[in-house]
Specification:
CATH topology: Dna Topoisomerase Vi A Subunit, Chain: A, domain 2
Number of domains: 1
Structural class: alpha/beta
Strand content: 15-25%
Largest sheet: 4 strands, parallel
Number of strands: 4
CATH architecture: 3-Layer(aba) Sandwich
Distance between the termini: 29 Å
Number of helices: 4
Helix content: 25-40%
Order of helices and strands: EHEHEHEH
Organism: Sulfobacillus acidophilus
Mean pLDDT: 92
Protein name: Topoisomerase
Shape: globular
Pfam family, one: Toprim
Keywords: Isomerase
InterPro entries: TOPRIM_dom
Length: 119
């Protein structure tokens, strides 16, 4: 594997994640329910990378996730809580914690503060 790629629904979701994800982690968008052409483009973009899926907790997000899981059956999932009203409104700290748990973000910050659970 050559790193990770994160797939989200739209540009506002991508903007939210870009506030804390390093540029070395690409973020791709489905732009709503992806058609065959978009799925092919996502597959090409994801080649040799571990796919991480993040979609909204609503019916549309669940449908998009199901479609993406057919294309990327080994993808990792990050879920938001329904009360957060979508990926773009999910607290940054919550999202950072999920990325740390997957090993995409470091467990320690630049000052050495430990973010791992129990640390």
């Amino acid at each position: 594997m050559d790193g990770f790629i994160v797939i989200v629904e739209g540009k506002n979701d991508a903007k939210r994640l870009r506030t804390f994800l390093p540029d070395s982690v690409p973020i791709a968008m489905t732009y709503g329910t992806p058609g065959q052409e978009r799925l092919l483009r996502l597959r090409v973009m994801a080649r040799h990378r571990q796919v991480v899926l993040i979609t909204d907790a609503d019916a549309a997000g669940r449908r998009i996730r199901r479609i993406l899981k057919e294309v990327f059956p080994d993808s990792w999932d990050i879920y938001t809580k329904p009360g957060f009203n979508g990926v773009e409104h999910t607290p940054v700290e919550y999202m950072q914690d999920r990325f740390r748990r997957l090993g995409i973000l470091p467990l320690r910050d630049e000052q050495g503060e430990d973010y791992s659970s129990g640390g």
